[in-house]
């Protein structure tokens, strides 16, 4: 680790709990999501004569946000809008919610066909953290957190999961608002200052910064370290295994 990472990572030793984002931090679901979003927006944007969809759009407008917020953001980037609709809308392209539900179907199909495995370094870090007595929680914008955790074989390691389903049920604002992370800390019985946020998306890093958490770790899975630092990360690593020496 660099001197800066070593200095700031020492706060891991005094933390009480670790709050993990899911997609891109624990599991490489970003690849599944990116394929599903591309499948959704490539024909739609072409049909509207808009600039074509690219992977940059995922990182700029979608990554880390609740699904329908990602739909709204991407449409707005092309000057497009659709009726809002309702969560019960059938999958399609007539409303924001219909598009969101269509994307969810595509993601579920990808997960069922190809499965999921956690990042080896993240699994090692999670195992070591549990052995050391840290509280742990998953905080995800996704409504698919439970099936992803089960597919990865790590659902039983988390007593607290605050995901898109919980946020909708409890009326909690999604990332970049800090509310879902604050709720996870509350459910674990700790203050924000006692918790570490581990995030790969700039919207999630912003949530950690604005929530006043003891440490915000950016995990660079493609966003770029500078964007994560600019968004509020205290340190940035390429893999959570880099932080193993800093655990108490």
Structural features, described:
This protein is an alpha/beta fold. It has a 6-stranded parallel β-sheet with strand order 3-2-1-4-5-6, with helices on both faces. The protein is built from 12 helices and 6 strands. It starts with a helix and ends in an 11-residue tail after the last strand. Helix 3 crosses helix 6 and helix 5 crosses helix 6. The longest helix has 19 residues.
Structural Rg: 18 Å
SS content category? alpha/beta
Widest β-sheet, arrangement of strands: 3-2-1-4-5-6
Mean pLDDT over the full residue set? 93
Shape: globular
Secondary-structure map:
Layout: H1 3-9, H2 11-14, E1 17-20, H3 29-47, H4 55-62, H5 67-77, H6 96-114, H7 120-131, E2 135-139, H8 145-152, E3 160-162, H9 164-170, H10 179-188, E4 195-199, H11 202-210, E5 215-219, H12 225-231, E6 235-237
Parallel strand pairs: 1-2, 1-4, 2-3, 4-5, 5-6
Helix pairs in contact: 3-6, 4-5, 5-6
A few lines on this structure:
This protein has 248 residues and is of the alpha/beta class. It contains twelve helices and six strands.
Question: What attributes does this structure have?
Answer:
six-stranded parallel beta sheet, 10% strand, 248 residues
């Amino acid at each position: 680790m660099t001197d800066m990472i070593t200095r700031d990572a020492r706060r891991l030793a005094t933390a009480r709990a670790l709050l993990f984002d899911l997609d891109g931090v624990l599991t490489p679901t970003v690849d599944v999501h990116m394929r599903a979003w591309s499948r959704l927006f490539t024909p739609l944007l072409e049909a509207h004569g808009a600039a074509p969809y690219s992977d940059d759009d995922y990182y700029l407008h979608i990554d880390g946000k609740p699904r329908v917020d990602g739909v709204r953001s991407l449409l707005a980037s092309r000057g497009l809008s659709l009726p809002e609709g309702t969560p019960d809308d059938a999958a399609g392209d007539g409303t924001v919610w219909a598009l969101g539900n269509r994307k969810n179907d595509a993601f579920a199909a990808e997960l069922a066909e190809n499965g999921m495995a956690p990042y080896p370094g993240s699994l090692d870090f999670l195992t070591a953290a549990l052995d050391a007595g840290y509280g742990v929680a998953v905080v995800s914008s996704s409504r698919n957190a439970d099936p992803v955790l089960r597919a990865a074989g790590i659902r039983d390691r988390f007593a607290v999961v605050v995901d898109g389903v919980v946020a909708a049920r409890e009326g909690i604002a999604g990332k970049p608002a800090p509310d879902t992370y604050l709720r996870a800390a509350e459910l674990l019985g700790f203050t924000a200052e006692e918790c570490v946020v581990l995030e790969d998306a700039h919207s999630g890093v912003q949530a950690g910064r604005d929530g006043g958490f003891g440490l915000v770790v950016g995990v660079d899975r493609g966003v770029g370290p500078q964007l994560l630092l600019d968004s509020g990360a205290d340190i940035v690593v390429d893999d959570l295994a880099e932080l193993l020496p800093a655990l108490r």
